[in-house]
Amino acid sequence: MKIFKREYLILSILAVLGLALLGGCKPEHRFIKKTAFKDTNAIVITFADRVDEAWAKNTANYSIYEKPDPDIKLKIDRVSLSPDKRTVVLAFKEDLNRDQPHILTISEITSGGKSLGTALVKVKKLYFGYLFSILIGAMIIHNFVFTKYLGLCVFFGTSQKKSTAVGMGITFTIVIVFSAMMAWFLYQFVLKPYRLDFLQIVVFIGLVSLSVQAVDTILRKVNPALFKAFGVYLVLVIANCIVIAVPLLLADNEYNGWESLMLAFGAGIGFLIALFLMSSVRERLDLANVPPTYRGLPIAFVVAGLFALAFMGFSGMSIF
Amino acid sequence: MPATTKTNSQLLINGILNENPIFRLALSMCPAVGISTTVMNGLLLGIAVLFVQVFSSCTISVIKNYIHPRIRIPTYTLTIATWVTVIDLVLAAYMPAAYKEMGIFVKLIVAFAIITMRLEMFACKNPVPASFWDGVGMGLGFMFAMMTLGFVRELLGMGTLFGYDILGFKPLLFFVLPAAGFFCVGIMMAVFNYVELAYNRKKKG
Amino acid sequence: MKEIIRIVVSLTVSCIIAAFVMGTVFAITDKAKKHNEHLNVQETMLGLLGYNKANPAPPDLKLFTMYRYIIEDDKTKNLGYMIPVSREGREGYELLVINLKGEFVECLSLDISPEKASEESERKSSLRAVVKPPRTFTYSDSTIIARLGGKRLAYLLPGEFPGFKTFIEVMLALDPSFKIMGLEIMEHEEDPGLGGEIEQAYFKNQFKDKSFEKVKELKVVKEPLPEEYLRYLEAGTTKEGLISRKEVEEIKSKYQDRDIYALTGATISSRSVTVGVKNIIRKFAYRVNILDSVITGQKIPVAF
């Protein structure tokens, strides 16, 4: 048990470090502290010290293009300098395509009369933000049950009581994160290089069975109490469309490791949220006066339809 | 469960009415909600499921005596996955427009509980002809359910059937939206319940 | 122990048989799939140019594909155009490298036949032979140039841009003065009935015949589509859309310089398509002018 805990600690430290390194765009010049998009048509550059006003206001010193189009330079409409002379805002006539990284060349940075050379910086949205948006996307905006209609059989089967629902949700999250990571690994290093894409289905479903088996064994040994509570749901996980949809999705979208992890985690938590919401309603439905033909599944479907309508309100949302 | 005593035609009807996968057994509901937006989609996915069900049933029925009991489930999964891959590749090559409509659902057939359940409960204990007809029955039942849903949703949502303009206007666009899939399946299930209740009442009284 | 061996053996055998079945089916269907895809794209392109079953394309209509790459090493970035040329009556491909200022750098001959050029892997290997490390190349996009009777008929641009949901893939047809000849939506994941209406004639055809000057500052207006304009837009598709020639010309000239009418309940999708189309055309016009000046300057015998 002790070994288990220590490994957990090491893993979590590594994860935090990794995420910290990914976050933010490191500027490639010691004088430029930060660059970022602002509103829909501006870029903000923060310098480490004051810059000369005459130099800063000269649009010819800035050259910017979208990464895939190095030959097309964007036209800067206006440059404004902050009162403390450390921040420059470049405004453009047209909205910027913020999904693309932009390459900004700042030439002959002049501060206090001295030239500090030329800097080439990449302006893009925080990668961390992108990862986070995949997570929230899979959790709420593209909720696998209400927006993508997957995993319904198990969903309706286990959403009768809050306790079963929560148990199923947690077990499911664990299995799906596990199998999604293995699926990503196999896809990137075995299936793609050897052009065995058509074996996707077989391989992924095999992985899912393996993960279920693995989680089953680990849980049995590590925490028998937990196993007693959740073990019975493990078998149901394999009949769930979502566990195979997640690997298929991450293969389709060519996500890298971190993105796959976010997708899997979001899918699992989204499923848990859906289950929890549904079970809360169904517990109350049991006490309500439902017409005989609707009792049981039909009314549950209607309720699910209402939830789906509500979740539609999230569609198209984009954070970061 | 011992080998079945039903005749082949009885098996067929069974799959469509008594043990209709979607409305009675409440299995494989994911596509029922997600894809039944038009009759055409329902038909195509129904054909795909029919194909997989029939071929898997027959395959398992043929090799049922060679399957080691402890690796039953992996064998079923492997068989189903193979046939799903085959139909997936064939559809992608010869019917690309339809394939794109169905998106990920063709690949998801492998996770349909109905197919595994049928193999477990029927195909591994029955001879090939019986398994074949059972598979056909289940597949047809699935197709029938999907097409009924598609019929209702397409007609009410887009005013068309099979792409042909019937009504000339769109009564309730809502039905094409995925959320309506839930409503429609729920209501259809209630209808089946009602029919069963009425039938039982008639039998008794 | 014997049990486990038996299990493992039977599992392995089943896996091998399954893999064999799937592999065979894959080998057979892969070719058909690629062929169908190619036919589908061709049909869409010809449709955009105005040809269909009733009006088939003339036999001397030729389609040439040009591929754009970004070639870079540590210090410089250049654009590389893989263009079809015809030297001494034979058709082949050459890599024309232009720097970011629009000046000619070099022209290298490539060992690839026109049929193989549509395969990404073939292009890659032929480029690798001439673009040696430390230089690297990345694929950007492709353009199809239609040529009829010795003159350029149209440019066909496949493009992709973000939409309301995920991405929208389109195919644009431009005439030599960059006026839009037609727009076709190839793929999208917008909501059916709302954003999905971008593939309907009454939205797509609004882009037709818009001049380059208008496109450069094209916007979306949130107003209902006028009834007469709707009839004009759907004229080709519905049976009731029969209107006289004079009416067609009147409506066309009236609405030609108007902005795009947004779809009901899908303003963002309409905007995405408009902005996406605008960007594709502007970037293309800029590039093709530079390319043409370099081609004439260097007297390269391009096939188009």
Topology:
The complex is a heterotrimer of chains A (320), B (205) and C (304).
Chain A: H1 2-22, E1 32-38, E2 42-47, H2 53-56, E3 62-66, E4 76-81, E5 87-92, E6 102-106, E7 110-111, E8 114-115, E9 119-123, H3 127-141, H4 152-158, H5 162-191, H6 200-222, H7 224-237, H8 241-252, H9 257-285, H10 297-312
Antiparallel strand pairs in A: 1-2, 2-5, 3-6, 4-5, 6-9, 7-8
Chain B: H1 8-16, H2 29-34, H3 39-63, H4 72-94, H5 96-102, H6 105-108, H7 113-123, H8 128-158, E1 160-161, E2 164-165, H9 178-204
Helix pairs in contact in B: 1-8, 3-4, 3-7, 3-8, 4-5, 4-7
Chain C: H1 2-48, E1 61-72, E2 77-87, E3 90-99, E4 104-110, H2 120-130, E5 136-148, E6 151-162, E7 167-174, E8 180-187, H3 201-204, H4 212-216, E9 220-221, H5 227-233, H6 245-255, E10 260-261, H7 267-298
Parallel strand pairs in C: 9-10
Antiparallel strand pairs in C: 1-2, 1-5, 2-3, 3-4, 5-6, 6-7, 7-8
Low-confidence stretches of chain B: none
Strand order of the main beta sheet of chain C, please?
4-3-2-1-5-6-7-8
The portion of residues forming beta strands of chain B comes to under 5%
Helix content of chain C: 25-40%
Count of individual helical segments of chain C = 7
Query: What spatial form of chain B do the alpha-carbon principal axes imply?
Result: globular
Biggest interface, chains and residue tallies = A-B, 40 and 42 residues
Number of helices of chain B: 9
| Overall pLDDT of chain B | 76
What string gives the helices and strands of chain C in order?
A: HEEEEHEEEEHHEHHEH
Radius of gyration of chain C: 24 Å
